[in-house]
Design brief:
Elements: H1 8-32, H2 34-37, H3 47-50, H4 55-73, H5 78-97
């Protein structure tokens, strides 16, 4: 309703969904850039680049994050599911853009 606070359940779902998908994007980035990250001072201590986590464990963690995100997504209406699923393109294309853009 206009002028009222949003539903607490929806706020919680969207907040957790954003957290899980942002984390999934970071995990995906770390997996893709693990060889590059070892050569960059500010990123050489990232878990996969430093060897703290194996790429397989990173993939497993990514699977958990995506599964949690899916668990949230299926609680929403159809329109929101379509919008949420389509945002995955942005989540996974973002780490690749630094290879093609310079800003």
């Amino acid at each position: 309703d206009p002028g009222h606070l949003p539903d607490f359940k929806m706020l919680t779902l969207f907040g957790c969904g954003a957290l899980f998908l942002r984390g999934a994007g970071c995990t995906f980035n770390d997996l893709l850039d693990r060889d590059i990250d070892t050569m960059v001072e500010c990123s050489k201590l990232r878990p996969v680049a430093s060897g703290l986590l194996t790429p397989f464990k990173g993939l497993c963690f990514l699977g958990v994050q995506l599964s949690l995100g899916l668990g949230i997504l299926i609680q929403l209406n159809t329109y929101s599911r379509i919008l949420g699923a389509s945002s995955l393109l942005l989540v996974f294309s973002y780490p690749l853009m630094k290879r093609f853009t310079f800003w």
